[in-house]
Automatic annotation (TrEMBL):
Upper lineage: Eukaryota, Metazoa, Chordata, Craniata, Vertebrata
The protein, known as: ICAM1 protein
Keywords for this protein: Membrane, Transmembrane, Transmembrane helix
Gene: Icam1
Statement: the UniProt record of this protein carries the keyword Coiled coil: no
InterPro entries listed in its UniProt record: ICAM_VCAM, Ig-like_dom, Ig-like_dom_sf, Ig-like_fold, Ig_sub
GO CC terms, sorted: plasma membrane
Length: 148
């Protein structure tokens, strides 16, 4: 739901005189005017929805991986994600490797608040992953947390 920011740089100043009768009269003293602040545009808290920030994402080892996580809100929120203290900027390209696999905490923040979502990145490993002691037949081709 829209809320209204208190930032004066985003507000219009509108003066309304009191209307004592059925017809507006602007001949009253300026001291009797009411001050009303109207937002230039409605503001909306940050939001991370499933379409713009899917909770599960699949990458393939050795190929380009992009963590997809965008937020809605006005003013536009800043979005960043982290896993184990390491940040990964959403929307940037990375050569996907097993170290990228895991659950990221993604946050969208603006002056109106913060929205959070957990995003799990799965990295499909190359066929050489058997050397890690994985049971390929049981686990299938998708590994989490960098190992199968």
């Amino acid at each position: 739901y829209p809320t209204f920011s208190q930032s004066l740089s985003q507000l219009f100043l509108v003066l309304f005189p009191p209307f004592p009768g059925p017809f507006p009269s602007f001949s009253l003293s300026p001291s009797l005017l009411f001050l009303v602040l109207i937002p230039a545009f409605p503001t909306v808290k940050p939001r991370l929805d499933i379409e713009r920030c899917p909770p599960q994402q699949n990458w393939t080892e050795g190929q380009e991986g992009i963590l997809t996580c965008n937020a809605t809100g006005t003013p536009e929120p800043q979005v960043w994600c982290s896993k184990d203290g390491n940040s990964l900027k959403p929307g940037t390209r990375h050569p996907a490797d097993r170290a990228h696999a895991g659950t990221y905490l993604c946050r969208a923040s603006s002056e109106l608040g913060t929205a959070e979502r957990n995003v799990t990145v799965w990295v499909q490993c190359e066929s050489g992953a058997r050397g890690l002691g994985a049971n390929w037949d049981t686990l299938g081709s998708w590994g989490s947390l960098g190992f199968l």
